Amino acid sequence: MARVVVNVMPKQEILDPQGQAVVRALGRLGISGVSDVRQGKRFDLEMDDSLSEAERQSIAEKIAEELLANTVIEEYSVVTAVEGEQ
Q1: What does DSSP assign to residue 72?
Q2: Which candidate, 84, 56, 70, 79, places its Cα nearest to that of 5?
Q3: What is the DSSP track for 22-34?
Q4: pLDDT confidence of residue 86
Q5: Phi-psi bin for 30: left (phi > 0), alpha (psi -120 to 50), beta?
Q6: Is 44 exposed, middle or buried (0-12, 13-18, 19+ CB in 10 A)?
Q7: Closest Cα partner for 6 from 60, 46, 59, 66?
Q8: How does pLDDT run across 22-31, given as a tens digit for each residue?
Q9: Contacts of 3 (CB under 8 A, 6+ apart)
């Protein structure tokens, strides 16, 4: 099986309250030097080896666009060749 990873993140202009909560918690833990955190989602898709890399990319893009990401407020990236994880 081939692994394809879809990463979904809030767009930069969208407020990320979960990320801000993490930054505040880091301060309470005495950790400094972190000025911003953005929290997103990672989806690992297992796909048939019989599909070409281009086919896997196309399928993952369709899944991300139509199901995994709210493209009004989120952006996504697809990684079709995950080194060391296939």
Answers
A1: T
A2: 79
A3: HHHHHHHTT--S-
A4: 44
A5: left
A6: exposed
A7: 60
A8: 999 999 999 9
A9: 44, 45, 46, 47, 82, 85, 86
